[in-house]
What we know:
By secondary structure, the protein is of the alpha/beta class. It has seven helices and 14 strands.
Amino acid sequence: MTITVLGSGTSMGIPVVGCACEVCRSEDPRDKRTRSSVLVETGGQRILIDASIDFRAQALRENIQHLDAVIFTHHHVDHILGLDDLRSLTLLNNYTIPIYASATTMENIQRVFAYIFSHEKPVSDIPRISAHVIDERPFTIERVTVIPIPLMHGPLPIFGYRIGNFAYCTDVSAIPESSYSLLEGLEVLILGALRYKPHPTHFNIEQAIAVAQRIGARQTYFTHIAHQVKHQKAVQELPSGISLAYDGMRIHIE
């Protein structure tokens, strides 16, 4: 399995428009963060988790020419507004990409992208998408089993996902007790950790450290990082086995 971190930033991205803070002016490429998303390659499948606002730039950077599926954590705009950029893939490859999301997330995707779902027959100016509503039960994409992980994003129930010994849990502020058993025995966990100060709908770094240590993955990477966090300084302060994700990072799991 190979996981590519397409984006590791919060909803505004880094640098933030109009900001001149130390991180936004940083020359460290790891401080340049597009909106959060990952590509999982396993079992002959290329699965995108969230189509971020920055998907087009991410796909060009990583030379993504084909996707087998897209799964969505939730419907906030930084996680879904790249959906239209699937159009070139479906047009050039002449195929339909299945997308998977909870009922609430799918309802909002279909509302925002009504023009995609209102056509009975595919046309060239919209992506060819097939919608699949999921719940908490595991589902399969060809030979790959995907396990939804119920999480809370402030008051909003969302999903993280486990594929093999990898789990992706972004935009999380609380993990229900029943979800911890789904996160046992991980090799790699990517976990949302917004900033140092508390936030009403995201783990801060202190909270994310405590959760990561409870889950006990061999390696944890924090994502959805705001501009209050400078990469080099943060990684020097984090406990062993915990680090920051960065755009373009590739993680290999045997």
